[in-house]
């Protein structure tokens, strides 16, 4: 059996993807059910979840969950629904994130927007991961978690609520990877560049600064996500951050050389 033909144990592996209604989360959730993994599609938008599942290759493997992860009770409700639908969750992807609005710069962002950004990205990510890990440790089962962070965990975005939430998530990945590693639970970060996926309204002119010459698409992230999530393909990988940005983060004030001929 080829390594790449069976990245998951579809009899035992189960997944929970937040933000599965749109963009990168949607692409990853759809790819997981496409590989035969039973997956909870969690999102605040019922219409988006319904459409994402309907457009999946194997809709019968998808379990919808609708709720607002900025609310503290929502994580418990999601975990109970996931357990009822699929049993223990072995693979967790945290992609949900509120909309990014350019008006929410340092002088513009209000307290509610600040708190919501941190609540969904950081608080929900932590509470869900800890609860899922607690069950896996008790059951002596391996697991794999993936957090969608950002290049703006390390460089400003003019959206301080967003960049600080992502910077905290990047450290959370390392904390959890170190703590859960000896229990066979791997925790990694996926770091997208400029992905025209819904949450980022892309200016096509940006492509000029990307070495691979184009903006990214949500489906550019899914193969790397599944590779890192797979306990077969990435068994010895934890606490790592995988940048999928077409080379955008290599760009600085030096233009690349012009190569003639
Ligand atoms: N698109 C990019 O260029 C880019 C770049 C870097 C990082 N990221 C990160 O990748 C992830 C996905 O980005 P995207 O652009 O695909 O996002 P998106 O906006 O297209 O999708 C985010 C999803 O999260 C859901 N969501 C928002 N608030 C929620 C809440 N309170 N409870 C539950 N669900 C909620 C939305 O309904 C939406 O379906 C995010 O964490 C984002 O920060 C994206």
From TrEMBL:
It comes from the Bacteria. GO terms for molecular function: oxidoreductase activity, acting on the CH-OH group of donors, NAD or NADP as acceptor. SUPFAM superfamilies: NAD(P)-binding Rossmann-fold domains. CDD domains: SDR_c. One of its GO terms (biological process) is fatty acid elongation. InterPro entries: NAD(P)-bd_dom_sf, SDR_fam. Belongs to the short-chain dehydrogenases/reductases (SDR) family. This is 3-oxoacyl-[acyl-carrier protein] reductase. It comes from Bradyrhizobium daqingense.
């Amino acid at each position: 059996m080829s390594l790449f033909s069976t990245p998951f144990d579809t009899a035992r592996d189960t997944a929970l993807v937040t933000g599965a209604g749109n963009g990168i989360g949607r692409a990853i959730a759809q790819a997981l059910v496409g590989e035969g993994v039973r997956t909870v599609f969690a999102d605040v938008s019922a219409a988006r979840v319904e459409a994402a599942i309907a457009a999946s290759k194997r809709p019968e493997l998808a379990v919808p969950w609708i709720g607002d992860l900025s609310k503290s009770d929502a994580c418990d409700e999601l975990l109970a629904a996931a357990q009822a639908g699929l049993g223990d969750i072995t693979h967790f992807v945290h992609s949900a994130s509120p909309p990014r609005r350019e008006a929410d710069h340092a002088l513009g962002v209000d307290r509610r927007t600040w708190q919501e950004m941190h609540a969904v990205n950081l608080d929900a990510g932590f509470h869900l991961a800890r609860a899922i890990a607690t069950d896996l440790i008790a059951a002596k089962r391996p697991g794999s978690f993936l957090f969608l962070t950002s290049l703006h965990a390390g460089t400003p975005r003019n959206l301080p609520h967003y960049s600080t939430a992502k910077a905290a998530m990047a450290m959370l990945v390392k904390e959890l990877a170190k703590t859960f590693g000896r229990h066979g639970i791997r925790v990694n970060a996926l770091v997208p560049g400029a992905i025209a996926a819904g949450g980022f309204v892309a200016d096509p002119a940006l492509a000029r600064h990307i070495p691979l010459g184009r903006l990214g698409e949500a489906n550019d992230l899914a193969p790397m996500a599944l590779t890192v999530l797979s306990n077969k393909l990435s068994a010895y990988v934890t606490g790592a951050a995988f940048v999928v940005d077409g080379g955008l983060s290599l760009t600085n004030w030096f233009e690349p050389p012009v190569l003639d001929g």
